Amino acid sequence: NETVVVTLGTPTNATLGTPTVHSLTIAAQTPTVSLTAASQTSSEGTAATITAQLSEPSTQTVTLPFTLSGTATSGSDYTITTSPITIPAGSTTGTVTVTVAADVVAEPDETVIVTLGTPTNATLGTPTVHTLTIAAQLPAVSFTAASQTVGEGAVATITAQLSSSSTQ
């Protein structure tokens, strides 16, 4: 909030009554902060940026804490910049970076869910939850040989192989 105080001085051809002081309060304009997208997909070995955006620039730094959930494991499947997201005074955006590990293990889609907490110097808008999907790493399956020849009465072994180990 900002305040303007007007005080009457000595009048000419009149006397002072009461009140002689008037305060005008200009209500604070608190910006709204929200995420620019509710979801995105990323591949292993890449980095994903999640952006928080203010409805208008602020004269104060906005801090925006967040929590993490999802099916991916922090440290082994991904790393993330620390909470909170900071939007400097005069700016309108702040980011968090998720670096997705390239673990060469075949696995299904995994998620990193970022949920915004209560901001400082702003109010929450929508969306407040961002789901980052780490795309599945599916192995390729193939035969170890394209052909073979065996004699009559022999046992033939035909082998299939995966390009990488799988959790499924």
Structure description:
This protein starts with a strand and ends in a 6-residue tail after the last strand. With 168 residues, it is an all-beta fold. The strands form five sheets. It has a five-stranded mixed beta sheet with strand order 8-10-5-3-12, with no helix packed on it. It has a four-stranded mixed beta sheet with strand order 4-13-11-7, with no helix packed on it. The chain has no helices and 15 strands.
The pLDDT mean sits at 93
Secondary-structure-based class equals mainly beta
Q: Roughly how many Å is the radius of gyration?
A: 30 Å
Number of helices: 0
- Outline type: rod-shaped
Strand content: 35-45%
Largest sheet: 5 strands, mixed
Helical content band: under 10%
Number of E-type strands = 15
Helix-strand pattern, N to C? EEEEEEEEEEEEEEE
Low-confidence stretches: none
What spatial order of strands do you see in the largest sheet?
8-10-5-3-12
Distance between the termini: 58 Å
Brief summary:
The protein is mostly beta strands and 168 residues long.
Secondary structure layout:
Blueprint: E1 2-7, E2 21-26, E3 32-35, E4 39-42, E5 47-54, E6 62-64, E7 66-69, E8 78-80, E9 85-87, E10 93-100, E11 110-116, E12 123-124, E13 129-134, E14 141-143, E15 160-162
Parallel strand pairs: 3-12, 4-13
Antiparallel strand pairs: 1-2, 3-5, 5-10, 6-9, 7-11, 8-10, 11-13, 14-15
